Amino acid sequence: VQLQASGGGLVQAGDSLRLSCAASGRTFSSYAMGWFRQAPGKEREFVAVISWSGSTTYYAESVKGRFTISRDNAKNTVYLQMNSLKPEDTAVYYCAKDRSPRHYNRGIHSRAPEYDYWGQGTQVTVSS
Question: What is d(CA 49, CA 32) in angstroms, rounded to the nearest whole number?
């Protein structure tokens, strides 16, 4: 499995960005997908996750109401729509694939160890 994240950039506070993560392979639709981020000098933190079907999502409190995760299984792609961006959203954003396929019925996860494949990251910089 390969994950390719894109869509980052330099924006001003209050602006929007949409990140994309394209996955290779034929089993994309069997796995939940997550977004994480890492700011300079900080640990990687959970941002959002979406179930394999797209019916269930979960967000970090810091982005709830501003960010929306979605997926298109026909295109093997997961998205992160980021609105009302703040300087504290500045980070490298990573997409990741949950290690448990849907038939394990383990739900969705916010902890990084629950994910086994990671994209290369895309930089988001929000200026004040």
Answer: 7
d(CA 14, CA 73) in angstroms, rounded, equals 30
15: which 2 tokens?
A: 């602006």
Sequence-distant (≥ 6) Cβ neighbours of residue 105 within 8 angstroms: none
- What is the DSSP secondary-structure string of 22-67? EE-SS-GGGEEEEEEEE-TTS--EEEEEE-TTSS-EEE-TTTTTTE
Q: What is the CA radius of gyration of the chain?
A: 14
Tokens describing residue 106: 């383990």
- Residue 32's SS3 state is strand
* Interval 17-37: pLDDT, tens: 999 999 998 889 999 999 999
Distances (CA, A) of 61 to 4, 56, 74, 101, 119: 26, 16, 30, 26, 23
Residue whose structure tokens are 């981020």: 37
- The helix/strand/coil state of 89 is helix
pLDDT at 95: 98
Cα–Cα dist 111/117, whole Å: 13
Tokens of 92: 């490298």
Percent of the chain residues past pLDDT 90, beyond the cut: 92
